[in-house]
Amino acid sequence: MRILVWHGWLLEGSGSNVYTARIVEAWRREGHEVLLVCQEPHPERFPFLDAAGTIGPDISATSLGTDPAAGRAVLLRPDVGDLLPVFVYDEYEDIRVKTFVDLTGEELDVYLEANVAALRRAARWHEPDVAIAGHAVPGPVIAHRALAGIPMVAKVHGSDIEYAMRPQPRYMELAREGLEGASAVAGGSRDVLDRLVGLVPSVADRVRVVAPAVDVERFRPMPRREALLRAAELLEDEPALARGRPRDLDREVAKALRGGDEDALNGLAYTYDQTAPDADAPARLRALAGHDGPLVGYLGKLIPQKGVELLIEALALLDPSPRALIVGFGTFRERLEALVLELQVGDRVTFTGRLDHRYAAPTVAALDVLVVPSVLEEAFGMVALEGAAAGALPLVARHSGLAEVAEALEAEIARPGLLSFEPGREAARNIARGISRLLAIPEDERRDLGRRLSAHVAAGWSWARTAGRLLQAGIG
After folding, report:
1. Residues 190, 326 within the same domain
2. DSSP 3-state helix, strand, coil percentages of the chain (rounded to 5)?
3. How far apart are CA 152 and CA 401, in angstroms?
């Protein structure tokens, strides 16, 4: 089958980016011909891409000499200007970024029109049987305007609802136009689809739950020392280390904190490449490999919506307190570093900066507990499954799509409530209680629970299964 995918962003760094990369890889493996239209600047980093090029007046794609498979995947970057609209602001290498809600009317119109024109040319070149359009907005409306007569699946992720549709009526109208033109609307959980239908009731008859999955070849249990040393070894060859956060920035954080200078503190996040691992991340992981006590952690964006500060506050409430490993990037990083200093838990917290799945997977395997403390609604909870696949016990906020993941994992081990905590005003205290509860389980029993969860995820949440269900939603 010939599949056309529109994804307006990159292939790393967020759940929807990873989701897109993995489903394209799965379709290629199964023998499909896939054209992926997105803004990824480094297609050579992805071994499942056979060729890459651009969409201009003419279309050309250069072979990447990748691993053979039954099918073929080509990435084309549309020429839509230098602006990358996003739902939540982050710094990107050599890309001008602006949130959707901050776009002027002219910027939005230019962006949509350029994408429609590019996708129309891509469809003439690829002649797809079905199209997949990312997020409730803007993917579906772009695909609807560009791909008349081609079945289209809209793929909802949640950030589209909370950071575009709810705040501004213009995105509600664009979403309605696109979603009403879709053959099916897929979302990772019943919760996210219920929220969508509450805003666009006219699509209630075409929603389908298609849960994300986990790369279980990477996220798998490993002994802690082996896992951390493996991650450190891999990181040593990462060219981006030179652009990552330097260790001496810690002194600047302390200085800004002492002076109560919030502007200076916030500004520090823009003095290095947010998309790179910390310059000394390999050394930090090697040092942590020698720790034989409890280790808890976090994997994801460092932004207020993810609630990372709640984990740090929970550490300050625990006595004795476990060590914590915080993996991720975002403009909230320096505020979190300041909180660590304020609460005097600096000797117990290790930051690494951004680690992609090559490095993050063994790092997560080193954890006893992976905390998912998001404070706003999540469409699913892919990171909780990644932790479970790696043998770390997830501790998940009991709300939105996260609650559905927690309930499924708790049911597998017949331990209701063990892997989740109540959000709200007492969230930090509840996280502390949850960590204590999990670490109080005898180590052998805890390891056995981790192995059971890992096997459960491997059996039930494969990307091949997700890709198949998404495609079936489009072809009926």
Report:
1. no
2. 50, 15, 35
3. 24
Those residues whose C-beta lies under 8 Å from the C-beta of residue 35, and which sit 6 or more positions away, are: 2, 3, 4, 5, 73, 74, 76, 122, 125, 126, 128
**Residue matched to tokens 């379709």:** 27
Based on the number of CB atoms within 10 Å of its own CB, is 68 exposed (0-12), middle (13-18) or buried (19 or more)?
exposed
Angle at 244 between CA 240 and CA 250, to 5 degrees: 165
Q: What is the model's pTM?
A: 0.91
Is 119 within the bounds of a domain? yes
Residues 204 and 314 grouped into a single domain: no
Q: How many structural domains is the chain composed of? A: 2
* Residue 271 and residue 201 in one domain: no
CB 429 within 8 A of CB 314: yes
Tell me whether residue 163 is in a domain. Answer: yes
CB 419 within 8 A of CB 301: no
DSSP state of 162: I
Q: State which residues form the domain around 275.
A: 224-460
In this structure, is residue 441 part of a structural domain? yes
Same domain for 166 and 273? no
Inform me whether the pLDDT recorded for 476 exceeds 90: no
3-state class (DSSP) for residue 134: strand
- Residue 219 domain-assigned (yes or no): no
CATH of the domain at 293: 3.40.50.2000
pLDDT digits (tens, 9 = 90+) for 315-343: 999 999 999 999 999 999 999 999 999 99
Query: According to the model, what pLDDT value does residue 95 have?
Result: 81
pLDDT band at 82 (very low <50, low <70, confident <90, very high): confident
Same domain, 189 and 267: no
Question: Using CB atoms within 10 A of its CB, is residue 177 exposed (0-12), middle (13-18) or buried (19+)?
Answer: middle
pLDDT tens sequence across 104-137: 999 999 999 999 999 999 999 999 999 999 999 9
Query: Mean of the pLDDT values across residues 202-211?
Result: 96
